Amino acid sequence: MSPEGTRSGTRPEAGPGRIVYKFGGTSVADAARIRDVAKLVTSAPTHPVVVVSALGGVTDRLVAIAESIRRGNDLWREILPELKARHVTALADLTDGDPEARRVLDAEMDAQFRRVDDAAGRSWSGRDAEFTDEIASIGEDLSARLAARALRACGALAEFVDARQVVRTDDRFGRARPCNDDIAALAAKLLTPLLDRCVVPVLQGFVGATADGRTTTLGRGGSDFTAAILGAALAAQEVHIWTDVDGILTGDPRAVDNPRVLSEIGFEEAVELAHFGAKVIHPEAAKHAVALGVPLRIRNTFRPQEPGTRILASRRGTAEIAAIAYKRGTVLIKVRSIPSALPYGFLARVFEVLARHGLPVDLVATSHSSTAITIDGNEDLRLVEQELSTFAEVGIRRGLATVTVVGHGLMEEPGTDVRIFWEVSRTPVHLISQASDVSVSFLVDDDRAPDLVRRLHTGLIELRDEEGRSSVQ
Ligand code: ADP
Ligand code: ASP
Ligand code: MG
Description:
Elements: E1 19-23, H1 31-42, E2 49-52, H2 58-71, H3 75-94, H4 99-121, H5 128-136, H6 138-153, E3 158-160, H7 180-190, H8 192-196, E4 200-204, E5 207-209, E6 215-217, H9 223-233, E7 238-243, E8 264-266, H10 267-275, H11 283-291, E9 296-300, E10 309-312, E11 320-337, H12 346-356, E12 361-366, E13 370-376, H13 382-388, E14 392-408, H14 416-424, E15 429-433, E16 439-445, H15 449-472
Helix pairs in contact: 1-6, 2-3, 2-5, 3-4, 3-6, 4-6, 7-9, 9-11, 10-11, 14-15
């Protein structure tokens, strides 16, 4: 089966009261939090499917381990014991008073950690991304087992189900795509019978496997995507993404002082926000859930009484600026056709090179003979630069950030553009891009971005909210 399958836009009958709960890294950071998650799950209105991320910060460490092994240095031997200790502490806490459960879980966790040494001892020549997935997946392999244990200790019927048996993907390691039809069949075979017996299945987010059983991952932050994939496969009534904030906010809480929770947001806006830096939801999760008709809600694990943010398939009504996002580490590539080059087909050539190297483009601005493109600073540019240089002059500039205003009907409302550009007018801008109806982005020097974000948030959102309040009084 090809990735994605054939189900786009269609949706089977909603399963009886199916819901999917996904808990992010901060929600399962240690034993105490995992226990709180278990309590939250057992008080759910129906038995949910539970998807968990790795304990907060663990995936970063595993990726560093993979990098160290690949480079042939010994850093990983320092990181691994610290990771083991953290998980063993959580395990001891969650199995306190139940030596048999501790023995079993201890053996399972040990087997997971041994995979690092096993993988380090094998040859992965030419398969770097596959190797990284093999190591990075261990975080969720551990956390999902801990979460299942915590649920059982809470009195729930809960079973760990290896996501590799359900989340079938293609073999694009590091950013694998789901095979939706296969996943629907596997979920019906493996998850539905458990749910019918009131057992809570607990699966790893982020992790999948190819048809021949090789471990893949869905990309960083991909546990949200897993929740949406399973929600669609089970025709769930709702998918709840439980995190550490009250929902999608009008601005990144680390950048603005008074962000407000949005009770709802259109999916296109959510996707733009996520794409341009708001980590709170993975863009593919929002796209997938909406394409397959699964309602998605973002909620706070630590304040479950709050209603959170609903992601709507479409948003109508008066135009409104919803939120400001920003993303650091942006790289600007300027490509100018050399005078002797053919005047036509230039853009096609540029994009063909980028596509062949799988380089995702964020922003684009173009004129007759030159094109400016931005990409994420973590991407490896060396080969692309070499190839572009064979037919164009290439300039690369780093140390930039993308600041994005997201809203619905953004440029339809007369005067909105003036207000946005007024706030931006004191900041030197390297590129402006407004390709969609719901976002406009500005490329600025990295050190100016936080100030611009604050200014836009105050000028476009806080002041508007105040005006709204005073007009009601
Ligand atoms: P999890 O571990 O639950 O997946 P993430 O760290 O991936 O959580 O995403 C939640 C974080 O996203 C929040 O703690 C917040 O700092 C950040 N964030 C950035 N922009 C926004 C926004 N507009 N709304 C909400 N959170 C945001
Ligand atoms: N643990 C993975 C990551 O850190 C997936 C996730 O948290 O969603 O990227
Ligand atoms: Mg996340």
